[in-house]
Design goal:
The complex is a heterodimer of chains A (445) and B (610).
Chain A lengths: L1 E3 L31 H18 L4 E6 L5 E6 L6 E6 L3 E6 L4 E7 L5 E6 L5 E6 L3 E6 L13 E4 L4 E6 L5 E6 L2 E5 L5 E5 L6 E6 L6 E6 L3 E6 L7 E5 L3 E6 L6 E6 L4 E5 L8 E3 L6 E6 L5 E6 L4 E5 L5 E5 L7 E6 L5 E6 L3 E6 L11 H16 L4 H8 L5 H26 L11 H4 L1 E5 L1
Antiparallel strand pairs in A: 2-29, 3-4, 4-5, 5-6, 7-8, 8-9, 9-10, 11-12, 12-13, 13-14, 15-16, 16-17, 17-18, 18-30, 19-20, 20-21, 21-22, 23-24, 24-25, 25-26, 27-28, 28-29
Helix pairs in contact in A: 1-2, 1-3
Chain B lengths: L32 E5 L15 E5 L32 H7 L13 H23 L10 E3 L11 H7 L2 H4 L3 E4 L5 E5 L5 E6 L3 E6 L4 E7 L4 E6 L5 E6 L2 E6 L4 E9 L1 E7 L4 E6 L3 E6 L4 E7 L7 E4 L6 E4 L4 E5 L8 E4 L5 E6 L5 E6 L3 E6 L10 E4 L6 E4 L5 E5 L2 E5 L17 E4 L4 E6 L5 E6 L2 E6 L19 H13 L22 H11 L21 H34 L29
Antiparallel strand pairs in B: 1-2, 4-31, 5-6, 6-7, 7-8, 9-10, 10-11, 11-12, 13-14, 14-15, 15-16, 17-18, 18-19, 19-20, 21-22, 22-23, 23-24, 25-26, 26-27, 27-28, 29-30, 30-31
Helix pairs in contact in B: 1-2
The chains are: A alpha+beta (445), B alpha+beta (610).
Amino acid sequence: MKVKMISRNPDNYVRETKEQQHKMPRNYDPSLHPLEGPREYVRALNATKLDRVFAKPFVANLSGHRDGVACFGKHPKQLSSLATGAYDGEVRIWDLANRTSIRHFVAHDGFVRGITYTRNGEQIFTVGDDKTIKVWKAQAPEIGDEEEPVNTILSRYGLHGISHNRKENKFATCGEVCAIWDEEHNDPLKTLKWGVDTLHTISYNPVETDILACCASDRSIILYDQREAQPLRKVVLTMKSNKLAWNPMEAFNFTVANEDCNLYTFDTRKLQTPLKVHFDHVSAVTDVDYSPTGKEFVSASYDKTVRIYNAHHSHSRDIYHTKRMQHVVCVAWSLDNRYVFSGSDEMNVRMWKAKASEKLGVIRPRERVNFNYQEALKHKYAAHPQIKRIARHRQVPRHVLNAQKKMRTVKEKEQVKEANVRNHSKKGKVPYVSEKKKHVLKEEV
Amino acid sequence: MTKPTPKARPKQKTPHKRYFDTEKATDNDDGGLERVQVRRKSQQNFVGDFIKMQTKTKKTPAFVRKAPKKPTAEPADPAEPQPKKNPIPQELMDKYSRGEKVQPKGVKTRHFKEQQTRKEVYLEYATEQAARTELLLQEVPGQLEPDEGETTAELRQAEIAGLVDLQSAAKHFSLSMEHGPYQLRYTKNGRHLLLGGRRGHVAAFDWVTKRLHCEFNAMESVEDVQWLHVPTMYAVAQKSWVYIYDKKGTELHCIKRLSRVNRLDFLPYHFLLAAGNTAGYASWLDVSIGELVGNFNTGLGDIRLLRHNPSNGVLCIGGGRGVVSMWSPKVREPLAKLLCHSTAMTALTVDPKGQHLVTAGLDRAVKVWDIRMLVQDKPLTHFQLRLPANELDVSQRGMLALSQGTYLETYADLLSGGGTADYQKLPYLRQRCDAFVHGLRFCPYEDVLGVATAKGFQSLLVPGSGEPNFDAMEDNPYETSKQRREHEVHALLEKIPPELITLDPHEITGVDAPTLQEKIDAKRRLFHVKAPRIDMKSRHKMKGRGGSAKAARNKQIVKDAKRKEFIAEVRQAKASVFKEHGAKVAKPKTKAARSVLDRFKPKPPKKRKA
């Protein structure tokens, strides 16, 4: 008779010295891990709760401006520097790592309308209400030296915005006309016009670098090609668009921030209907900026909040607000995809985390693995009502809540009215129009 | 001088392949694959998106060997997936598999279809990786291998102890104690043992090192004992109340809400101490917050047999009439009832995998039931004994132990075991104890069977009963106190709420599709709906504008309108149900021939134009 019994050698299971790791033999047999589903669900619930517990998005407040912040310029190469322009014509360069202003100078009389860095990040272009384009060195002058522009270009037209080409040494300004400039010359290479009095935003496509888009005061969005003599296309919405941002990964898509509380994402190839209407703001949307991944964008609004949207979802995934933040005028997503900046009327620039509950600082591999696991769990169980409720809930300021209620009532009322009209008219007389199509008036070529 | 052409990269001999490229051939033309449509039980009447399919290979009889193929000149088809280097046997894949694949057929959009396909690939990869870890397991299960002409049944404990190594031989011991019929419990990791004697004796010790934690006399009768989630605390059901003691024997709590308790059990993942008392009350105490999450009368009378199902946390209570009922703390009716014996039951147990329920009755029968398939008319196995079994237990590797008075025997396999009446089929091991057996438990992760008798405790060696490889993240017999604390915190964080105790533990991960019964009920309910109460508040009017009579009239008008609307809706819904099921709506009969006297009939109401 042969007998064999389980007889474990403790040396294989117990560590020898305290310096060693504990020995953790694993056995992945499912029968040794009962109640897999419920345990995973509880973990997912905990992960979702922790996500809300750690949601502290506010990182820092950069104060220094003496008037409201009007525009941002992101440095193309340095993550830690940001240029901001204010209503009083002052430009400040911030060191974001130390959260201090390292340099400031008065660039223009009146508003600074736009700031942009050159491709290599060595020069800064600013445009202002005084019809000038000024070129500044990105490097601070020696101690004792005056802040002086390298070059000042006097424009014939008023200027409202500036955007730099991603691949060539060209930039474009907008105002009464859209003008394409070379960095070396003091006269525009080209001016493009389409019967509009003011263009107030301009933006170069980061991938197809010859394409640029403007928002005009006649509620239209105009597309240009810098190689051509005439503008390309135009789409007119029901209300004015304030800002425009191109999707850096999907080069044919752009999003506009509109005065009617919504944002619209368009496909350039099909301008009649927006791809998506992004709701949730309760007042005019003033600015929009894409994350470098092109998956999300951030928007600023007159309702004193900043919202973050998934580029393909119509409702926001997060809302940022503070008690002191007033109307938010400009917003920017940092190029490392981790931070969001907002500039508001009350002279402050605020720095937020792009993911509200993300842990800053060094993350150890084991911690990283755990975060990834929690992320996967949250995704897997996202549809469960309890988890959904917790993940979706956001505390919003009272005025936003009231405005949301009001907007809902108005919308419901309109729907009821439309339904009544439909009931009392001939069949087919009052057609059903989708929400997407409602806001686009016409497309011109 | 012409520029030399840049050297082209050497072409890869085989296209670069990643794991995910080796997709299974889905076409049917190889003939070996047969598509079989299988739906889960709960989805049988669900006409939705998720339809499960599986590819089943046709079984070829093992003895028919195919003629070896002649080597053909043509090269192998490059599209054909290369056989994997180290193929994993199918039974190993089945062991780690979480069920059949979800076929993306019927998923509506292409996006989700692709998502589903991708997910399945990842799942298969995960299963494969888990199956490959089998290689890393350190220990092999124990076994008895009889020589020619020998049977395992004739082997005595002393002989086994003589044949095994010293460490294992030390696991065979007996304690003789005088405080009368004993109960026993091992901890979940199999390291500690708790003994409770009817006449008040309680002892807790580490049975491997034989180190005593505490020993005391409760000075009243002890009905049952149970470890809690850590080996530092245990509950003792005493004469009138349940007490909780710590490892040193200090009384931590006296739970007066659990009174006259007969049987205790503990659900480790829910942190619930389950108790059944003499009055037929089943109670669940959440030991992490000290609250009774369920406490109600089961109506079964004195609860003597109580075990929980480890795979779903449902409490199985054996009644006096041969019925096993399954209970969840948040549902006051039994989730299921199973008529197991025509006589009273004497013992019941659930195997650690939660697949089988083993019952024994006074009819001297022992029956094994499949508890995942409750709609069954007969047990999986049924064997007859000479005497009724009074204690039962199933080990981790599926060995069954049963006792009949002072005699006990074990069977190597739960399903194919034999009875003592069957002389052809002898048990795996048998043992006669010196006194009546009152408790019987296999020790987890060890080849040991603990037997508590009227006169003490015996630890018997049953090679091959325990799972040799433990998972240290789940139960670790070698854990240090720090590890224990860490584990406790983690376990508490993922405590499963008692609401999730259901018969199907995977319900939470499934799709919540209505069953046919629910659909029928919903339709049936449509015919018995009551008109909603209309609570109309008339707008406040200025003084002098309309009196109360007018207001009342207006109210009545609104109410009538609402009611009419409701009736029309219900009528429409009913008509749609009839239409769907092809029931004939009573139609007015065809007109009879007009008679002269018809003019005296009341006129039919005018038909309105729609």
